[in-house]
């Protein structure tokens, strides 16, 4: 069985990491899996890159320009929407023609257009589409927040400066998607029960097959290791309680940086003795912006792609905090749990499916910095070991490569025998 997994990037972004890990897991289980990407950064023989050149740049720029134009030349939210209006025709590639199963993942920013998705469906090859956010079920946005227009038909998108009228971009793309999806079956996969619940309400997915399969993680790599050795390797203090916060871009407001700052200030005010006992490890782009904004010592680290270093980082800390305001099934929580590090996060998206409250971490009330601070304190004060053991059990039972790969292989076989 040959499976072609398609994602814009090989390793940048949560969807890319999840797709890459699935490709690796499938190959370990005897499936001939190849990942097709626009942006390749490794020498992995199972990852194929689109031919580089001006065409790829043009596709990206043209889509951004159209969005920019419809947003009345304002930059705000320009990367929070995608319209899939132009791309390379991948159906001409030998990797596509030789594949038995086409498995779409995050295919935006010029990777696949709706026209090419239509061609993929017209080939009558079975198509699986793993949704890493809400974009396949909305007109143009990746996170609908409180908007429910996509239940019937998108219009007046909240991410555009002005919408409505005959040129309403979200409505036009929504109708194009509806026409494209109506041609042939697509088998949608949501990474969390939360996402399935959200997208199942979309008029685009009515009558479509939508099931839940989580993202995989290599629990042979991501596993508990010696804490002190990890701290030495990561150049972190041996005598402090360490809190970890990370994101591709630290200043991304969706990742909850403001709530982390407020929670830390509350901890320092209510428990002054913690100022010398706690340290904050921050990893990601612009991690140094928190150096002077937190009441605790900050240890900034760059964005880390090397998974061996990631394991050491998770092992070195006592708790991982994710105050994100929008999430599906965060790889970072999965990674931390597999390494035996308990997590604290808001009750949002798929996070409550991952963190079992007061068993392997703490679920704080949404956008409640005081409860976030309480969760951090509770995990640190109650000895992290029991929480960490529970986290490892959850990761191995729910997200291990074997568990997830077998679910996808079963789905592929079902589609090929129809």
Q: How does this model look, in words?
A:
Helices cover 37% and strands 16% of the residues. The protein is built from 14 helices and 13 strands. It has helices spanning 14-28, 54-70, 94-98, 114-122, 169-181, 193-199, 227-233, 257-270, 307-316, 331-338, 351-354, 369-381, 384-398, 401-416; strands at residues 2-6, 32-37, 47-49, 101-104, 127-131, 187-190, 209-212, 241-249, 278-285, 297-301, 319-322, 343-346, 361-364. The protein has a seven-stranded parallel beta sheet. It has a six-stranded parallel beta sheet with strand order 10-9-8-11-12-13, sandwiched between helices. Helix 5 (169-181) links the parallel strand 5 (127-131) and strand 6.
**How would you characterize the largest beta sheet?**
7 strands, parallel
Task: Compute the average pLDDT.
Answer: 94
Cross-sheet strand order for the largest sheet: 3-2-1-4-5-6-7
Q: Structural class, judged by helices and strands?
A: alpha/beta
Q: Please report the total strand number as a whole number.
A: 13
* Residues in helix, %: 25-40%
Order of helices and strands: EHEEHHEHEHEHEHEHEEHEHEHEHHH
Overall radius of gyration: 22 Å
Tell me which oligomeric state these chains represent. Answer: single chain
Alpha plus pi helix count = 14
Strand content: 15-25%
CA-CA gap between termini: 15 Å
Shape: globular
Return residue spans where pLDDT drops below 50 for at least 5 consecutive residues: none
């Amino acid at each position: 069985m040959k499976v072609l997994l398609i994602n814009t990037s090989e390793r940048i972004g949560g969807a890319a990491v999840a797709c890459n890990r699935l490709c690796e897991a499938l190959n370990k289980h005897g499936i001939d899996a190849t990942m097709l990407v626009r942006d390749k950064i490794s020498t992995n023989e199972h990852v194929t890159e689109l031919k580089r050149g001006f065409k790829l740049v043009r596709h990206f720029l043209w889509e951004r320009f159209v969005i920019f134009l419809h947003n009345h030349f304002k930059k705000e939210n320009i990367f929070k929407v995608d319209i899939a209006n132009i791309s390379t025709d991948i159906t001409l590639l030998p990797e596509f023609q030789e594949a038995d199963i086409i498995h779409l993942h995050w295919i935006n920013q010029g990777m696949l257009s709706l026209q090419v998705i239509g061609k993929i469906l017209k080939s009558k090859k079975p198509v699986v589409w793993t949704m890493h956010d809400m974009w396949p079920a909305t007109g143009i946005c990746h996170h609908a927040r409180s908007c429910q227009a996509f239940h019937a038909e998108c219009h007046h998108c909240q991410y555009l400066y002005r919408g409505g009228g005959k040129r309403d971009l979200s409505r036009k793309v929504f109708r194009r998607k509806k026409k494209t999806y109506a041609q042939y079956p697509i088998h949608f996969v949501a990474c969390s029960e939360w996402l399935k619940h959200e997208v199942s309400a979309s008029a685009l997915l009515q009558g479509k097959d939508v099931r839940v399969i989580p993202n995989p993680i290599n629990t042979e790599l991501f596993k508990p290791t010696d804490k002190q050795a990890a701290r030495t390797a990561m150049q972190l203090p041996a005598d402090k309680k360490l809190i970890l916060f990370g994101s591709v871009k630290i200043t991304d407001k969706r990742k909850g940086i403001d709530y982390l700052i407020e929670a830390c200030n509350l901890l320092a005010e209510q428990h002054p003795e913690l100022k010398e006992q706690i340290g904050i490890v921050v990893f990601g782009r612009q991690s140094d912006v928190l150096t002077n904004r937190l009441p605790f010592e900050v240890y900034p680290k760059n964005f880390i792609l090397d998974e061996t270093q990631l394991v050491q980082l998770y092992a070195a800390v006592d708790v991982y905090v994710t105050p994100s305001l929008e999430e599906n099934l965060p790889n970072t929580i999965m990674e931390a749990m597999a390494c035996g590090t308990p997590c604290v996060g808001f009750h949002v998206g798929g996070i409550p499916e991952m963190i079992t409250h007061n068993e392997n971490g703490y679920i704080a009330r949404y956008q409640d910095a005081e409860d976030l601070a309480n969760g951090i304190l509770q995990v640190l004060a109650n000895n992290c070991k029991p929480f960490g053991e529970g986290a490892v059990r959850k990761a191995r039972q729910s997200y291990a490569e074997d568990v997830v790969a077998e679910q996808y292989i079963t789905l592929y076989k079902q589609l090929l025998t129809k």
